[in-house]
Amino acid sequence: MTSSEAFARDTQIVHLGRDPQANHGIVNPPVYHASTFIFNSVAQLLETRRDRASGAFEQFTYGREGTPTTRALEDAVTQLEGGYRAVVTSCGLGAICASLTAFLSAGDHLLIIDSLYGPVRQFCDEYLKRFGVEVSYYDPLIGADIAHLVQPNTRVIYLESPCSLTFEMTDVPAITRVARARGITTIMDNTWATPLCFQPLAHGADVSIHAATKYISGHSDLMLGIAVCNEAAFIPVKKTASASGYCGGPDDIYMALRGLRTLSLRLQRHQETATTIARWLQRRPEVSRVMYPALPDDPGHAIWRRDFNGASGLFGAVLKPCSEQQFAAMLDHMDLFLMGYSWGGFESLVVPTYPATLRSARPWQEKGPALRLHAGLEDPDDLIRDLERGFARLAAAA
Ligand SMILES: *Cc1c(COP(=O)(O)O)cnc(C)c1O
């Protein structure tokens, strides 16, 4: 799409990454299934080698490095986030691992947010440390004071906001300002907000990561990641993803592009329903705390309002202390909030969470059991009645 800057994001997501006139007038881009690209001549083959070596990656050489289908999704998300170029990977965790290893070497120091997506903590503690990277965790509420944790060998600061499981809001611009002034690369996990509700690069980050598995694809049926990069970050991330073998499958990429078209509409409903349910939960005697930055009394609300254009449908709650049997009685028999990992699909989900096991810089103090809820596209009253029946089972199991 040309002159896309002139259009609102809602218009852009309908049109980005497709060109009907280049494809017999067909609305959606074709799915290219390809490992091999045939070269016409040695000269052409050598040209693709020069293209790779220069870091341009403009030409297609081999399926692992992407096809025109891959490029369509990369271009669409890049333009939504105001990036330079993006790299699609096999899953969100792949985009994170490729981005971290793109910039870190033995002897470097990584500053990583304490309340991050759990598997990234495992990658840092079990693998990056083994390869000689020094890893320290910072309090998500640290803001500009992160300057005190920076060491001469700090190479990367990693952010996520709102945080996984506990939904603290991080002051992204305060942290990226510190990083920029010292030449430190910043990588942010932007999965919760999607490209529609927050733009990390406009707030000073170098790489913005999405688990497209979640809202971008939106239908709980595929795994895919994407790292949107500014110009300086693109070559290192692309080269590392390619060298490490991270690539997305063509059908999954096509489905993610299809999901992207309805992202704005879906998110509005997810946010509306999540807000309704979160407010309802706040009034329940069984609940000690709801964690959702879109609520006016949430501790992160001021930052959310300042920096974000909206919220998604994922939030947390802490119950008043109860027995394990009571908690299980509630969660084991839900009709609509089925129990499962992941989120961002059309359906509601719930999982018990255990933040205490995943925190070191800011210990988790709550005594009661914690939950993560995903408000799906069902009727909100049906969802509330499902939770109401859950609380009745919890009380009956006392
Ligand atoms: C799910 C998730 C990921 C990982 O994405 P996968 O596609 O499951 O590998 C990364 N970050 C956040 C915040 C997530 O929720």
Please outline what is shown here.
With 398 residues, the protein is α/β, with parallel strands linked by helices. It has helices at 9-15, 42-53, 68-81, 92-103, 118-128, 172-181, 194-197, 231-244, 250-260, 263-282, 301-307, 324-331, 380-396, and strands at residues 85-89, 109-113, 134-138, 154-160, 185-189, 207-211, 225-229, 287-291, 314-319, 338-339, 349-353, 370-374. It has two domains: 4-32 and 67-260, 3-Layer(aba) Sandwich (Aspartate Aminotransferase, domain 2), CATH 3.40.640; 263-396, Alpha-Beta Complex (Aspartate Aminotransferase, domain 1), CATH 3.90.1150.10.
Give me the secondary-structure topology.
Layout (H helix, E strand, L loop, with lengths): L8 H7 L26 H12 L14 H14 L3 E5 L2 H12 L5 E5 L4 H11 L5 E5 L15 E7 L11 H10 L3 E5 L4 H4 L9 E5 L13 E5 L1 H14 L5 H11 L2 H20 L4 E5 L9 H7 L6 E6 L4 H8 L6 E2 L9 E5 L16 E5 L5 H17 L2
Bound molecules: pyridoxal-5'-phosphate (PLP).
The site of pyridoxal-5'-phosphate has 13 residues, from helix 4.
Q: Would you write up a description of this structure?
A:
There is one protein chain. The chain has 398 residues and is an alpha/beta fold. It folds into two domains: 4-32 and 67-260, Aspartate Aminotransferase, domain 2 (3-Layer(aba) Sandwich), CATH 3.40.640; 263-396, Alpha-Beta Complex (Aspartate Aminotransferase, domain 1), CATH 3.90.1150. It is 37% helix and 15% strand. It contains 13 helices and twelve strands. The chain has helices at 9-15, 42-53, 68-81, 92-103, 118-128, 172-181, 194-197, 231-244, 250-260, 263-282, 301-307, 324-331, 380-396, and strands at 85-89, 109-113, 134-138, 154-160, 185-189, 207-211, 225-229, 287-291, 314-319, 338-339, 349-353, 370-374. The strands form two sheets. A seven-stranded mixed sheet has the order 1-7-6-5-4-2-3, with helices on both faces. The chain has a five-stranded mixed sheet with strand order 8-9-12-11-10, with helices on one face. α7 (194-197) links the parallel β5 (185-189) and β6 (207-211). 47% of the residues are buried. Bound molecules: pyridoxal-5'-phosphate. Pyridoxal-5'-phosphate is lined by residues 91-93, 117, 164, 189, 191, 211, 213-214, 223, 225, 342.
